[in-house]
Each structure stands twice: as structure tokens, then as C-alpha cells.
Automatic annotation (TrEMBL):
<feature type="domain" description="Glycosyl transferase family 1">
    <location>
        <begin position="207"/>
        <end position="343"/>
    </location>
</feature>
<dbReference type="GO" id="GO:0016757">
    <property type="term" value="F:glycosyltransferase activity"/>
</dbReference>
<dbReference type="Pfam" id="PF00534">
    <property type="entry name" value="Glycos_transf_1"/>
</dbReference>
<dbReference type="Pfam" id="PF13439">
    <property type="entry name" value="Glyco_transf_4"/>
</dbReference>
<protein>
    <submittedName>
        <fullName>Glycosyltransferase</fullName>
        <ecNumber>2.4.-.-</ecNumber>
    </submittedName>
</protein>
<dbReference type="InterPro" id="IPR028098">
    <property type="entry name" value="Glyco_trans_4-like_N"/>
</dbReference>
<keyword id="KW-0328">Glycosyltransferase</keyword>
<dbReference type="InterPro" id="IPR050194">
    <property type="entry name" value="Glycosyltransferase_grp1"/>
</dbReference>
<keyword id="KW-0808">Transferase</keyword>
<feature type="domain" description="Glycosyltransferase subfamily 4-like N-terminal">
    <location>
        <begin position="15"/>
        <end position="185"/>
    </location>
</feature>
<dbReference type="InterPro" id="IPR001296">
    <property type="entry name" value="Glyco_trans_1"/>
</dbReference>
Length: 382
């Protein structure tokens, strides 16, 4: 099967999308498929890889994040699709890339992989600090939903990686959803990678003893990740108990996050770790994973932390909430730093009694995800 993925947010310097794409090429090669990733770039170029190709299409640079470019004209992308002659077209965003996929002529099956749910991520992310969800839904987003529904109707399936995303779309009257949960890279993440020396070094960096609780937050340093919620919660909890927070990530809000971190001795900022094995060792060496974004569509960092043996403190909305395991993980009201601080204190008390680590649990792998998605795509071709 030849699949063309119009992947608006792929970049060689990217994060989760890049990780997913490279794992997908590997899975495709093992199953005899070919996936061509069509991505905006500084130039036109085709690079063959095992499992497919990276098809770069010249496009303007992204105005906010210079690591990325943005699709503009139609001709280059449609010409690339013509050369590939795919059996199925997938779009990876509901933005320009989605419309480019939808407008390609011919009776070719088309899917839209929901890497993000834009109303949750952008409308709520930008405005819900000033207005209620009901106000946003009734006054700000109806026109946006109409726009999205016109796009979504042109795809055979909207592929959702978490039940919460499909549920939200269904509630908005969109029925062509297909839930195929994500997973973590098989054999990469494990509690066996825990490194007590690394853990001790991180705590020492913050002037904390090894008996302190070590929290880790992972993700892009951007507004929708809601880092102030986590940092405020840690500041509140740290008044009563010894704990430290490692923030692992990079992004355009780096300077803002760093300035806050530098004012707090119980926080430290760690740039992205490129090697997957080293990244897995870093995660497993923490005690608790904490997250604040309620606009996730994957919750990949949380899934990796769970596979690494960490307990989790998560908001009660978004895809990360789907990953919370009752009686093991703690959830708090999304955006509520005070309640998140209470959960940190509860986890500190448990850590003091029992130590780090979560009970063994089954973790879905990316290989299982790819098996399921290729099977569904094969059905669309029949």
C-alpha cells in the first residue's frame, strides 16, 4: 500500500510528530508498505528512506517557530501527490494541509489524523482564562465549527488517538471518527532504565537531598502546555515538603519559562534530549510525571512516563486524562494550580511511605497502533 501523508508539522528538528513519522516508516517497511511524508520545507527535495520517502515542498518559513515551514500554494503539493500516485491520502492537520488533501481530485480514500483538536487547543487555550467554555462555544467558535465540519465531511475517517477526542467530535455532530489509540516505542521505555546517580545529580542541581520528591514535566515550551499551572503548583507544595521539578523541553516560550525557573531553586530546565535511550533513562530516573495541558490529542509523554514506571499527576481533561489509572495516578481540575499542589502533597506523602514506582501495567505499543491503523486503511481500499 502506498500512503501519502500531507504532514504539515514535520520538521527534522521537531518533536513528537518527527518521532511518530520515523517510527511509522520503520513499521511500514516491516509490513511492505510505502509512506511518503509530504512536508513544507525551505526547498524542494525527495529523500528516500526505508519504508517510504520524505518529500519536501518549498514553502514559507513559519512566522513563530523557525524550525517549521507552512504550506501555501496548492500546485506543488498536488504535483507531489500525482508523482506518488498513492492508494490512500492522509492529512495530519486540520489547517492548510487538511484542505490540500481534501481538494486533491480523484476517488482516492482520504483520512485526517487528528494530531490536534483545534477548538480545544486554540479557542479554549487562548480564551478560557477570560470566558467560560459555554461562552466560547456559543459566541466565539460556531463559525469555526462550521468551517471544520465542511473540511471533516470530505474525509472517510477522522483518526483519533484518544477516546476523549472522538467523544468531543461526536458531541459536535461529527460521526466519521475512528479511534485508534497511540502507543509507546516497543522496548524503549522501562522502569529498568532508572538511574539513581542521575536522579541524585538532578536533585543536587536544585540543592535538594535524595529524599526529596523529583517531579518531571515534559513537552514543548509553549502556551498551550500551561507550564505556569505546574510551576505555581510546585511553588505552593514546596513550601511544606522537599521536592524538585525538572522541565524537559524547548520552544518559543523558553525565555519566559527559564526566567521563572531561575527564580526558583527547586526547579531546573533541561533542553530536549535527542537520543531515545538517553531520553528513556532520563524519564525513568524521576519519581512522578506531572502535566498541565488539557488540549492533548495523544498524551504521548504521559504514556512514555507510565511505561517508564512513573506515577502521574494529570489534569482531568484531554487525552492525558484517558491514561490515568485509578488508584495509581492522581488527577486535578484542569488549570487549577492549588488543586494540583494538593495532589503533589498527596503524592509526596505516598512517596515517603512507599518509595518511587508504580505497579506493573500493560502498556500499548506503537507497533500495535500501526498494526491497527494499517488494517483500517486496507479496509478503505477494498
Amino acid at each position: 500500500m502506498r500512503i501519502a501523508d500531507i504532514c504539515e508539522f514535520y520538521s527534522p528538528e521537531g518533536g513528537g510528530v518527527k518521532t511518530y513519522v520515523h517510527a511509522r516508516w520503520k513499521a511500514a517497511a516491516a509490513r511492505g508498505h510505502q509512506i511518503s511524508i509530504i512536508a513544507p520545507s525551505a526547498h524542494d527535495r525527495v529523500t528516500k528512506v526505508e519504508g517510504g520517502a520524505l518529500v519536501e515542498v518549498k514553502a514559507p518559513r513559519h512566522p513563530i517557530d523557525p524550525r517549521y515551514h507552512i504550506f501555501w500554494g496548492t500546485a506543488r503539493v498536488h504535483a507531489a501527490l500525482g508523482r506518488i500516485s498513492p492508494d490512500l491520502i492522509e492529512a495530519s492537520s486540520p489547517w492548510r494541509g487538511g484542505w490540500l488533501a481534501a481538494s486533491y481530485p480523484g476517488d482516492i480514500p482520504k483520512t485526517l489524523f487528528m494530531h490536534e483538536e483545534p477548538v480545544m487547543k486554540w479557542a479554549y487555550g487562548l480564551f478560557d482564562r477570560w470566558a467560560s467554555r459555554q461562552t466560547i462555544d456559543t459566541r466565539l467558535t460556531p463559525w469555526f465549527w462550521r468551517h471544520l465540519k465542511r473540511l471533516y465531511a470530505q474525509f472517510d475517517h477522522l483518526v483519533c488517538a484518544a477516546p476523549s477526542v472522538a467523544k468531543r467530535l461526536n458531541a459536535a455532530g461529527i460521526s466519521n471518527t475512528l479511534t485508534i489509540p497511540m502507543g509507546v516505542e516497543d522496548g524503549v521505555f522501562s522502569a529498568r532504565h532508572r538511574d539513581t546517580e542521575l536522579r541524585g545529580g538532578l536533585l543536587e542541581r536544585m540543592g535538594l537531598p535524595e529524599t526529596a520528591l523529583l517531579l518531571i514535566g515534559i513537552g514543548r515550551l509553549t502556551g498551550e502546555k500551561r507550564w505556569p499551572v505546574i510551576m505555581d503548583a510546585v511553588n505552593i507544595a514546596a513550601r511544606d515538603v522537599p521536592l524538585g521539578l525538572v522541565i524537559l523541553g524547548g520552544g518559543h516560550a523558553h525565555d519566559t519559562v527559564r526566567s521563572e525557573v531561575e527564580r526558583n531553586r527547586h526547579m531546573t530546565l533541561q533542553p530536549p534530549i535527542p537520543g531515545r535511550r538517553e531520553y528513556a533513562r532520563f524519564i525513568a530516573s524521576a519519581d512522578v510525571f506531572i502535566h498541565a495541558s488539557n488540549a492533548e490529542t495523544f498524551g504521548l509523554a504521559a504514556a512514555e512516563a507510565r511505561a517508564s514506571g512513573l506515577r502521574m499527576i494529570l489534569p482531568d481533561e484531554g487525552a492525558v486524562a484517558d491514561l490515568a489509572e485509578a488508584h495509581v495516578d492522581l488527577t486535578y481540575r484542569a488549570k487549577d494550580s492549588a488543586e494540583a499542589a494538593v495532589k503533589i502533597l498527596q503524592e509526596h506523602a505516598r512517596f515517603t511511605r512507599e518509595g518511587a514506582g508504580r505497579p506493573p501495567c500493560a502498556v500499548r505499543t506503537l507497533d500495535q497502533h500501526f498494526t491497527d491503523i494499517f488494517a483500517e486503511y486496507k479496509k478503505l481500499r477494498l
